[in-house]
Amino acid sequence: MRTQAAVLHPGADRWAIEDIELDPPRECEVLVRIHACGLCHSEEHHRTGDVPLDHPTIGGHEGAGVVEAVGPGVRSVAVGDHVVFSSIPTCGRCGPCVTGHGNLCDEGRWIGSGRQLLDHTSRHHLDGTDLNIICLVGAFAHHTVVGEASIIKIGQDIPFEQACIVGCGVPTGWGSAVYTGGVRAGDDVAVLGVGGIGASAIQGARFAGARRIFAVDPVAYKRDEALALGATHVAGSIEEAIELVREVTWGLLCRVTICAMGVGRGDLMRSIMELCAKHGRVVVVNIHPVNDSPPTIDMLNLTGYEKQVVGSIFGSVNSRRDVPRLLALWREGPLGLDRLVTRTYDGLSHINEGYQDMRDGRNLRGVLVLD
Ligand SMILES: NC(=O)c1ccc[n+]([C@@H]2O[C@H](COP(=O)([O-])OP(=O)(O)OC[C@H]3O[C@@H](n4cnc5c(N)ncnc54)[C@H](O)[C@@H]3O)[C@@H](O)[C@H]2O)c1
Ligand SMILES: [Zn+2]
Ligand SMILES: [Zn+2]
What we know:
The mean pLDDT is 97. It contains twelve helices and 19 strands. By secondary structure, the protein is α/β, with parallel strands linked by helices. Helix 4 packs parallel to helix 5 (196-208). It is globular and about 65 Å long. Nicotinamide-adenine-dinucleotide binds next to helix 1, helix 4 and helix 5. One zinc ion binds at residues 90-91, 93-94, 96-97, 105-107.
């Protein structure tokens, strides 16, 4: 079939809207008509070259839509079901999946390939050239074909523009506080960067019982949103936050610090560690450019105070459990998805404008609505 997708060509600095050819789903694959897709910062790293792509690629890993066809062997969804994509596939059979670490599913090793899990070929083509799909999803499109491992069925009552961000931003941020960070009742927490990820981390920390949440962002609008979502204190920079946290916590500092800035920077790690309490944990969610300078950390201080620095991919969530759980929390009230979607854009053609708004600090999350 013919459909339309936003493609990033290697070296290009804008998304191109292309008419593409899409093959039918093969074994254990699903054809989805996409109704909404979120503009996560992760695609931006490919556009800037922080994490370069070497092949034309359909972006978008936060998406929600309706199943239009299924290949042989698909069991978990049927035509007409509403679904979101899991930005990391979960096969349910590998070691990480069966031990509760679906975010580290062994099939995730194919994410960089951009091809289908089944046979490592492409269903998406542009003028005879095979296209890659980001995160094995390719949600910046009216239709896509993905493996069943990337599909999660959701209730039909959930608006697509809210559902889509539960494919990456919400679980990544929420889980970085609740799971990777292990925030407990009474903890003091710092969240660095208030985009889709940081705003969700604030909500996760609040829900887990944090006492004080220090949100740090250079953009005043983001700091206001942070306060509305549950932060108790805000600062415009890490240096400012160090002073504030020292004063407010009487020098005890934060048990959990979550790094959710748009672009990770190794040269900031030394300052970030100054926010970290004895036996505290710094959770690195933000993506660092491949050529970023190596982080500088005061290792004597790390040892002496038993500080931990841990990475966090997809918020350490098990998406098959956590996506429905987060949507239930939204339905029942405590999770504010509506506020995370600052702005919607009508159609794929607004993608470059949406990303410009992200760069300008105007959105917690922008979402493209496709009908
Ligand atoms: N590990 C994962 O699984 C995973 C998943 C999704 C996204 N990410 C990454 O998380 C990061 C955040 O993504 P997002 O979509 O929320 O981005 P975003 O652009 O929406 O938000 C980033 C925020 O960081 C702020 N910021 C920039 N420099 C800062 C600084 N020095 N101090 C404090 N705040 C600063 C910006 O003003 C902005 O509000 C990105 O690097 C993204 O690629 C990681
Ligand atoms: Zn993402
Ligand atoms: Zn697996």
